[in-house]
């Protein structure tokens, strides 16, 4: 089971409202041997929340969101009829205007409950994270090692 599937199952009931720590506890209880760490779970909460301002860093989830972020109240299942439709634009996450309702942009508000270690733009892609880590620390692997992309040398350890 993937983290996304576990979150879909956890939030299947529209009445379920959980803050981030409660999500961690619920997944720990339901999946004691889960392979995902808390950071992965938090990134999935952001990436699949239709209106979370930091979703702008997870463009690959456009059209796949199933959660709604309620600020300090936490997360719940997204109900488009109730919560409206949100899209990702250059200026951020925007609520699509409905009859007599103008488009609304939302901005990120950090509170004590937000984890500052993951508040920046972070990729869900393990491969990209690994690539970045390797390129920054090539010399630790082997002196004078080079990495190539598309047949061209991109990075060399110094």
How would you characterize this protein structure?
This protein is α+β, with helices and mostly antiparallel strands and 158 residues long. The chain folds into two domains: 108 residues, no CATH class; 34 residues, no CATH class. The chain has a three-stranded antiparallel sheet with strand order 1-3-2. It has a three-stranded antiparallel sheet with strand order 4-5-6, with no helix packed on it. The protein has a two-stranded antiparallel sheet with strand order 7-8. The chain is globular, with a radius of gyration of 19 Å. The N and C termini lie far apart (41 Å).
For this entry, give a set of tags:
8 strands, three-stranded antiparallel β-sheet, alpha+beta, 6 helices, globular, 17% strand, 158 residues
Short synopsis of the structure:
Helix content is 30%, strand content 17%. With 158 residues, the protein is of the alpha+beta class.
């Amino acid at each position: 089971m993937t983290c996304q599937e576990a979150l879909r199952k956890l939030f299947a009931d529209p009445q379920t409202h959980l803050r981030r720590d409660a999500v961690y506890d619920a997944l720990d209880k339901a999946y004691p041997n889960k392979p995902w760490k808390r950071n992965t779970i938090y990134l999935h909460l952001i990436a699949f929340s239709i209106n979370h301002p930091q979703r702008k860093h997870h463009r690959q989830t456009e059209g796949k969101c199933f959660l709604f972020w309620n600020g300090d109240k936490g997360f719940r299942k997204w109900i488009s009829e109730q919560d409206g439709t949100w899209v990702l634009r250059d200026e951020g996450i925007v609520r699509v205007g409905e009859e007599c309702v103008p488009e609304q942009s939302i901005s990120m508000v950090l509170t004590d409950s937000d984890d500052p270690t993951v508040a920046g733009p972070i990729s869900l892609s393990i491969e990209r994270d690994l690539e970045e880590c390797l390129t920054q620390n090539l010399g630790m692997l082997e002196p004078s090692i080079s990495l190539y992309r598309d047949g061209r040398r991109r990075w060399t350890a110094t």
